[in-house]
Input
Amino acid sequence: MSEIVTVNGDDFAGAAHHEGATITAWLKGNADYAALDAVEMLLTRAHAEATRLGANEMVIDLRQLEFMNSSCFKCFLSWITDIQELATDQQYRVKFLSNPKLHWQKRSLHSLRCFAVELITVTEQ
Amino acid sequence: MENPYVELNFRPNVQLVSVVRRFVSEFYQRFIGDADGTSRVALATHELLENAVKYSMDGETTIRIEVLQQETPRRVRIWLRNRAEPQHIAAIREIVDGVSKAEDAFAFYQALIVRKARRKDGSGLGLARICAEGEMKISYTVEDDVVMIDALTVIGDKP
Output
């Protein structure tokens, strides 16, 4: 398993790594305004690696992410837009792992999925 | 019985916004007893306060969060007051007027998401997110450079 990027803040952390052509990332803590640059960096680097590897899927584990503000949510929108703008055969799917006890996740991931229903799946665990 | 409420008059910064959101979550979980309702109130509190941090003229903000428990169904009201630059007040008008006129707050939010996905300066999604994901009705009043935002939502019964 190879590390792609790790980000750490006072109240937020995340990382992405890959094994073969499968990329897995996790975010935990509080994705508020202070975490904005870290979230953007994580998604940008993971996307670049997914494109380089020709990945079929990226798994994003949000199960320990306490909260995400609208600015960080927009980073996800921009990233999904980047995927949509790839040639069809280069696009990869995104699978979110969510925590049903964190109620905002169900609502926000539904909003995100409606934006790109062809690319996104959400699994509660 | 009196309505339980919290009112804070303070000069928030980015770090304090999350502190207040966590406090609100814990405080209102006791009174609301509806985990999804508490989550929606916390989300709205966070987005409103972050807007105040970013756009307030002097940083000073008053926020009051009240459970209207005499009403049926029960509702939670978030009231926020701060001084704001004209361009921020115009942005509030655009979003709140837009979502108020829309037949479906979620459809309005989805259309806004498509428009803002490539925006570089801030998300521009916070108020619409409160309405769509937070299921809140937002209104505002403006007096000179003071803007007051009122957000109301129905919450479930205590389990």
Notes: Chain B has a mean pLDDT of 90.
